[in-house]
C-alpha cells in the first residue's frame, strides 16, 4: 500500500462548551516517512492551538458588552418608571390566579421584569 497523503485533526476544549478544531493535511513525497510527517503535523497543530490560547489569555476575565450609560440627571424618568411599576404591582396583587395575572402582565412593559414575574409565580394555578 502506498501512502501519499496524511491528515491529522484534533479538537481542543477552550472553555465552557467552547472548542477549537484544528486539522492539517499533507501530501507525501515518495521518500517521506508517513509516521515522521504525522508527528510533524501533530506538533504544528499543537503550536497553532498554543497560539490561540495565548491570544485568549489576554481576554480572560474580560466581559465585552455594549452598554449605553444613561446620563446622571434622569431622576424624573426613574421616578416615572418606579410609579408605573408600583401601579402594575398593585394590579398584580389583586389577581387570585397565576394565569390571570400573567395575561395582564403580558400586556405591560414589565412582562420580563423579574420582581413582577416573582409576584405572578407566587400566585396559585387555577387547576390546583
Describe this protein with a few key phrases.
128 residues; 4 helices; single chain
Helix and strand sequence = EEHHHH
Biggest β-sheet description: 2 strands, antiparallel
Helix content: 40-55%
Q: What is the strand content? A: 15-25%
Low-confidence stretches: none
Number of strands: 2
First-residue to last-residue Cα separation: 73 Å
Mean pLDDT: 80
Number of helices: 4
Radius of gyration: 30 Å
What is this entry, summarized?
It is built from four helices and two strands; from the N terminus they run ββαααα. It has helices at residues 34-57, 75-94, 98-105, 114-122; strands at 5-15, 18-27. Strands 1-2 form a two-stranded antiparallel ribbon.
Can you characterise this structure?
This protein is α+β, with helices and mostly antiparallel strands. The protein has two domains: about 5-55, no CATH class; about 75-120, no CATH class. It is built from four helices and two strands. It has a two-stranded antiparallel sheet. Helix 3 (about 100-105) runs antiparallel to helix 4 (about 115-120). The mean pLDDT is about 80.
Amino acid at each position: 500500500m502506498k501512502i501519499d497523503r496524511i491528515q491529522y485533526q484534533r479538537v481542543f476544549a477552550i472553555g465552557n462548551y467552547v472548542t477549537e478544531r484544528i486539522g492539517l493535511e499533507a501530501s507525501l513525497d515518495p521518500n517521506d516517512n508517513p509516521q515522521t510527517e504525522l508527528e510533524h503535523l501533530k506538533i504544528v497543530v499543537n503550536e497553532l492551538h498554543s497560539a490561540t490560547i495565548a491570544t485568549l489569555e489576554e481576554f480572560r476575565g474580560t466581559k465585552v458588552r455594549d452598554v449605553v450609560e444613561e446620563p446622571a440627571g434622569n431622576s424624573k424618568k426613574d421616578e416615572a418608571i418606579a410609579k408605573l411599576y408600583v401601579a402594575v404591582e398593585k394590579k398584580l396583587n389583586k389577581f387570585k390566579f397565576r394565569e390571570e395575572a400573567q395575561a395582564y402582565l403580558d400586556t405591560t412593559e414589565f412582562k420580563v421584569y423579574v420582581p413582577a414575574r416573582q409576584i405572578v409565580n407566587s400566585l396559585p394555578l387555577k387547576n390546583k
